[in-house]
């Protein structure tokens, strides 16, 4: 059983995360959103700059000095209070030794507070997240993803490579838009349910929510064909 579990979790991470990255970066049609639906990146995808180690992974630290490093992606539906997300995590000791690794899965949105849109948050030059960039000639400007700041609290399930799974609350903060002063630090916080373990210090990591205007339409730039003229009545000689 342990060997099966050890195989299953890396397999989930290896298959699910690339699929989520494709979903977020290559398919704006799925984000045509609509009312309270967001895609989000947690220290993954185009947020990760090879020259900036503070961008990925997202790290939260406890008062005891141990920390959780997390990355992932998913979707949030504010109206139905649902979330579909997954990612990987690493638990490290205060000295940096790996204590635990695994994957996390989210299925419940506990709360979401939007800070508003921040259209200028995406890089204006040199940004190539995927095929979505090349859709700009086909689709109107308003169909492009709009970065939006906000604070989401998710109930997640931690699935370690070894040992029992457990529930936790993951707070994801994107400091864009009209950010409250007390939420000016971007990153994550993590607390274990049924335990006093609390990782409330945001150490590092970038987060971004992406929304699409509700009026966006993939057919907005397709010219409407004129109706064919009705045949005239036959002329009697």
Structural description of this entry:
There is one protein chain. With 237 residues, the chain is mostly beta strands. The chain has one domain. Helices cover 11% and strands 39% of the residues. It has a six-stranded antiparallel barrel. A hairpin with a 4-residue loop joins strand 3 (67-77) and strand 4. The termini are far apart. Residues 1-11, 21-34, 124-142 and 215-225 have low confidence and may be disordered.
DSSP strand content: 35-45%
Q: Work out the helix count.
A: 1
Q: Into how many domains do the coordinates divide?
A: 1
Helix content: 10-25%
Bulk shape: globular
How are the strands of the biggest sheet laid out side by side? 1-3-4-5-6-11
Query: Which sequence of SSEs, written as H and E, runs from N to C?
Result: HEEEEEEEEEEE
Task: Give the low-confidence spans.
Answer: 1-11, 21-34, 124-142, 215-225
From the alpha carbons, calculate the radius of gyration and give it in angstroms: 22 Å
Task: Calculate the mean pLDDT score and round it.
Answer: 77
Chain-wise SSE layout:
Blueprint: H1 2-26, E1 37-42, E2 58-61, E3 67-77, E4 82-92, E5 98-117, E6 146-160, E7 166-174, E8 187-192, E9 198-199, E10 201-204, E11 207-211
Antiparallel strand pairs: 1-3, 1-11, 2-3, 2-10, 3-4, 4-5, 5-6, 6-7, 6-11, 7-8, 8-9
Question: What is the compact description of this entry?
Answer:
The chain has 237 residues and is mainly beta. It contains one helix and eleven strands, in the order αβββββββββββ.
